[in-house]
UniProtKB/TrEMBL annotation:
Transmembrane segments: none annotated. It comes from Populus trichocarpa. Its main location: nucleus. It is found in: Nucleus, Nucleolus. One of its GO terms (biological process) is DNA-templated transcription. GO terms for cellular component: DNA-directed RNA polymerase complex; nucleolus; nucleoplasm. This is TFIIS-type domain-containing protein. Coiled coil: none annotated.
């Protein structure tokens, strides 16, 4: 076993992405069809009235955690935050 290098930490990979708060509102339209994302029927789209949305939670700058919603109506795709 020749020379062994000791790792500084056990992390295999880390990807840090930095965004401005305004960038989080630019959610892709097709996110509503992603089966891995959670859905809720406790909200109503203000644009089309559809009663189901996909939701994501993200940190938006100094605002703390912000909930983002995308309407599940395939003809709408309206995005909003709470």
């Amino acid at each position: 076993m020749g020379n062994m290098e000791v790792a500084g930490n056990n992390r295999v990979y880390r990807n840090e992405i930095y965004h401005h708060a305004a960038e989080y509102t630019q959610v892709l339209q097709d996110v509503a069809s992603d089966p891995a994302l959670p859905r809720t029927k406790s909200v109503c789209c203000a644009v089309c009235g559809y009663g189901e949305a996909v939701f994501l939670q993200a940190t938006a700058g100094d605002e703390g955690m912000t909930m983002f919603y995308v309407c599940c109506n395939p003809n709408c795709g309206h995005r909003w935050r709470d």
